[in-house]
Structures are given as C-alpha cells and as structure tokens.
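Summary of Year 1 activities. Much of the first year was spent building the evaluation harness for sequence design. The harness presents a backbone, in tokenized form, and records the residue chosen at every position. We chose the following record to illustrate the format because it has been used consistently in internal testing since the harness was completed.
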C-alpha cells in the first residue's frame, strides 16, 4: 500500500480566525519574556553630602578645580592615616593641632582650608571635629571660587568629607594596618542593608581602633571610633537619615627643643626624642546628625538638617626655657606646667526649600 500526504490550504476566513486566536498568546509570551529580562533597580532618597549636588551643573562645567579622593584611591595610597592622601594633591599641605587630636588641618594655596562634613561646617577647635577615617566614603577638595557652591567659607579652597551611607546589599569588611614604627590598627565596616528584607530601614555600622606609634619612642596616639548610620524610607516622597559618630582619643605628643649649633649633646638619647614627654591629652567627640527630605513635587523638595556636637577634652602641657649651658647637669632655666579642660557643645540647624523650573531647552543633569 502506498501512503500519500495531501496538503490542503486554509480558507481566508479560517486563516483570519486562527491569527486572531494566536496573536494574544504570542503577545503575552513576549511580554512575559521582556518582564523577566528587565533589571530591577531600587533607589533610596538622595542626601546633600556632596559639594556639587546642590547646583545644576555637570562636573566638567564647574568654574573651579575639583579633586575627588575616593575609597579606591585611599586603598591604593595605603596611608596609615588615609586622610594624609590629600597631601599628594597639588597646593595642599597638612598641618596638625598641637595636641594631636581632632580634625587634621590643611592649607590650600596658602590659606587655611576649612573641612566640611557632608557639606556642612563643623566645629574643630581642640579635639572637636574628629571625623574618623573609617567613617569616610570619599574626600572632595574644591579649589578656586568656592563661594559658588558652599558660600564664602574658604579663600583658597575647602575640603568636604563625604561619610558612608547604607545600601541595599549586605556586606562586611575588616582591614588591618601596621607600619615600621610599630603602629597597628583595625578598621571594620558592616552593612546590614535592608532590615527584615524591607527597604523601609537600612543600617550600616563602621568604626576603628588604632594605636599609632612614631619615630620618637614616647610619642603615641590611640583612637577608638564607631558610627552607626540608618536610613528610614517613610514613604515614596519622604526619607530620613540619622547617624551617631563617636571618637575617643588618648595622645602623648612630643615636646622637643631647638639645637642652635646643629649638634645634639651627647647625653641626649637620639633613639627616643629630642626633649621629654611634655603632654597628655584625652578627648571625646560625639556628633549626632539627622537629615529629612520630602518631595512635594518632582521639582519641589524640602530638606531639613540638624546636628548636635559635644566635645570634652582634657590636656596638660609642660613648657619652659632651657639653659643650653647646663645641659650636661640637666638643669633648666625654668619649667612651667599648663593644664586645661574644655567642653564644647554646638547645635546646627538649617532648612532648604528648592524649586527647579526649566523654561528653555533641556535641564542639566545632576552629578
């Protein structure tokens, strides 16, 4: 028996009905595939931490010099104190407060460069303003007409410290440091991300313990620091960020004396230091920061920021005039011991209602 296949075409009416029935199925399957391929991105509120996110100008159009030292560059430089990486930039020099506590001071183009924290001026007098390196995401160094972005706060430039924020993905890191003088330290950073798998609350905790040693045996500085920060997404248009930064410092700064003829007397042990232990410092610094953002419209946003800073510092310092003629006997013309205690409490509050309207052409993209 021979089998034959017969092919019979559809009538125009049957073809139309078949197309009508199969089209929705094909369209639904295509949509399903596209939905699965779409990458989902979760966005949280934006906070005013940067020097340049307050003005609608792209970085390449800024009329001043801007250097950004981010965490990647800090890792590459591998300084024991990461903030010292700023000294590798042109026209930036580091100074130090005499008791070795508080925020390190810098000079930009020959002028004192104020250090901002999250785009805000902080008190940094004798032990205050002690933003630990473990809290920092990046540094922004702005040189030139800084008043364009941050007001007349620095003639030569300003340095902004951008602190760490929590993000959605969980993560943890621990960093150990040491140097040739015997310094040792540990930095930690734990990002808990979303609490209870909800984007309502995000939490991150960072901190450090460091025991700094120097080329002089009797010098040293010990710091303990911790900073929890949380973001609360209270709704589609409202977000709140709160952080508590604490740092404790104990320091023994060096006190030396000048050598007028360029020679060090034989009875001075040069393996230790040129002088004697003449200072002892204990300081505590606490900074509480909050920021509330609410968007009334896409182009109308309210920002309210407040901070409370408290610093307690005790120090003693020995000074005097040395008699070089009597160095061999250990006599001095006179010595005086100075001691002081200062407590600083400062409160900062500011509010900003920003409206943006585009009357002609396209609006600039924010950095």
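For this record, the design step produced the sequence shown next.
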């Amino acid at each position: 028996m021979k089998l034959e296949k017969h092919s019979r075409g559809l009538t125009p009416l049957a073809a139309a009905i078949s197309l009508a029935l199969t089209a929705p199925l094909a369209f639904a399957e295509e949509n399903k595939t596209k939905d699965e391929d779409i990458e989902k991105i979760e966005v949280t509120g934006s906070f005013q931490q940067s020097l340049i996110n307050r003005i609608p100008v792209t970085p390449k159009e800024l009329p001043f010099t801007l250097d950004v030292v981010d965490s990647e560059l800090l890792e590459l430089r591998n300084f024991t104190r990461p903030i010292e990486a700023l000294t590798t930039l042109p026209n930036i020099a580091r100074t130090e407060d005499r008791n070795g506590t508080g925020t390190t001071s810098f000079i930009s183009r020959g002028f004192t460069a104020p250090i901002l924290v999250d785009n805000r001026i902080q008190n940094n007098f004798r032990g205050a303003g002690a933003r630990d390196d473990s809290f920092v995401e990046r540094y922004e160094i702005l040189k030139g007409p800084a008043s364009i972005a941050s007001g007349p706060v620095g003639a030569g430039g300003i340095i902004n410290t951008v602190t760490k924020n929590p993000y959605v993905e969980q993560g943890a890191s621990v960093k150990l440091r040491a140097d040739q003088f015997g310094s040792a330290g540990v930095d930690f950073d734990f990002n808990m991300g979303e609490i209870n798998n909800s984007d309502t609350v995000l939490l991150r905790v960072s901190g450090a313990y460091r025991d700094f040693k120097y080329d002089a045996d009797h010098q040293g500085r010990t710091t303990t620091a911790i900073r929890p920060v949380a973001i609360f997404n209270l709704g589609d248009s409202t977000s709140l960020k709160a952080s508590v930064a604490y740092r404790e410092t104990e320091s023994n700064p060096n006190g030396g004396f000048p050598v007028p003829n360029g020679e060090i007397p034989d009875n001075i042990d040069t393996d230790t230091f040129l002088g004697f232990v003449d200072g002892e410092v204990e300081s505590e610094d606490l900074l509480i920061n909050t920021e509330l953002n609410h968007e009334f419209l896409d182009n109308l946003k309210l920002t309210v920021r407040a901070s409370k800073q408290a610093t307690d510092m005790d120090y003693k310092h020995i000074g005097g005039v040395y008699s070089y003629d009597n160095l061999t006997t250990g006599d001095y013309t006179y010595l005086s011991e100075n001691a002081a205690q200062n407590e600083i409490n400062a409160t900062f509050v500011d509010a900003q209602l920003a409206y943006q309207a585009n009357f002609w052409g396209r609006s600039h993209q924010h950095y």
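The helical segments are 12-37, 71-77, 147-150. Quantitative recovery figures across the full test set are reported in Table 2.
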